[in-house]
Amino acid sequence: MTHPGASHTQALGSGQKTVPEEVRDVAGVGLGDIVASVVDGVLIGGLYGLVAVGLALIWGVMEVINFAHGDYMMLGALATYFLATRLGLDPLLAAPVAFGLVFLLGVATQRTVINRILDAPLLTQIATTFAVLLIIRYGVQAAFGPYTRRLSSWYANEIYYLGPVVIPLPKLIAFIASVAVAAALYFFLFHTRTGIALRATAQDREVAQLMGINVHRMYELAFGIGVGVAGLAGAVASLFYPVFPEMGAFFALIAFISVVLGGFGSVFGAFLGGIIVGVTEAVSALFIDPALKDVVAFLLFIVIVL
């Protein structure tokens, strides 16, 4: 992930410090470099985790692999961009609106498409959700063009320094938002009647029906929340990441890796998996070509699967 060039900085500590040579290894990587990379990995990993949370929720409740998940994230980012540039909303205020719009689209998709493939073979589910991916992606290209867009705001170029650690404010905001949403989802799932009904549906659909739970309503809610959270992730990602029709492809792959790391169906394991992927990418970039850091995440995925 690259951050736009910064024009304004603010010191939180005593400024950058020179790392003593005795703490440097033979590769020339200092302890400060490692700490800075871990912090950056945690920040971006929170965003990865937020995308993965929605994917894990959908799988956990419905046992459907949503290949279009990243494109719902892109829709959230695009909605935030237009709300900010056309209506003048601050991107942070536009983010909840983007969540609502993507949530409603998700509910509509579940009713008209996903509901028909709930008991279908896995290959049918994959083909169907991939078709949804193509409709969303190329529909956006046809309607708005294949252009790359960037949001601007007063905090877009804010950077804080804490010793050797560089903290771009947009990434910090995205991380805080990701943690807050994950915490809110935890409260919803474990401390509300609707959330408990969702978990009951995930554990045993037939028993949930016998208990009077409308499982089809739960499916709509799960899919809507799942893609809505992805849309919200896209909204906060647009603070520092370019918005374009294919932006969701990379995040979808990272989300799948995070879900595998955290365990299929484990919402909070998926969030932790996202942070692990983020830290792994950031630290590995110190020792290999940064352009290859994403390969490390995929190698980690292969190791876990095998």
UniProtKB/TrEMBL annotation:
Query: Iron: present as a keyword of the record?
Result: no
Q: Which membrane topology term applies here? A: Multi-pass membrane protein
One Pfam entry for this protein is BPD_transp_2
- What is its subcellular localisation? Cell membrane
* GO biological process assignments: amino acid transport
Q: Which GO terms describe its cellular component?
A: plasma membrane
Give GO terms: molecular function aspect only.
transmembrane transporter activity
Give TM segment ranges.
34-57, 89-108, 120-140, 160-189, 221-244, 250-279, 286-305
Keyword Cell membrane: yes or no?
yes
Database matches in InterPro entries: ABC_transp_permease (IPR001851), BCAA_transport_permease (IPR052157)
Q: Please classify the protein's predominant subcellular localization into one broad category.
A: membrane
Could you list this entry's UniProt keywords, alphabetically sorted.
Answer: Amino-acid transport, Cell membrane, Membrane, Transmembrane, Transmembrane helix, Transport
Protein family per UniProt: Belongs to the binding-protein-dependent transport system permease family. LivHM subfamily.
PANTHER family xref list: AMINO ACID ABC TRANSPORTER PERMEASE PROTEIN (PTHR11795:SF445), BRANCHED-CHAIN AMINO ACID TRANSPORT SYSTEM PERMEASE PROTEIN LIVH (PTHR11795)
Q: What is this protein called?
A: Branched-chain amino acid ABC transporter permease
What is the species listed in this Swiss-Prot or TrEMBL entry? Pyrodictium delaneyi
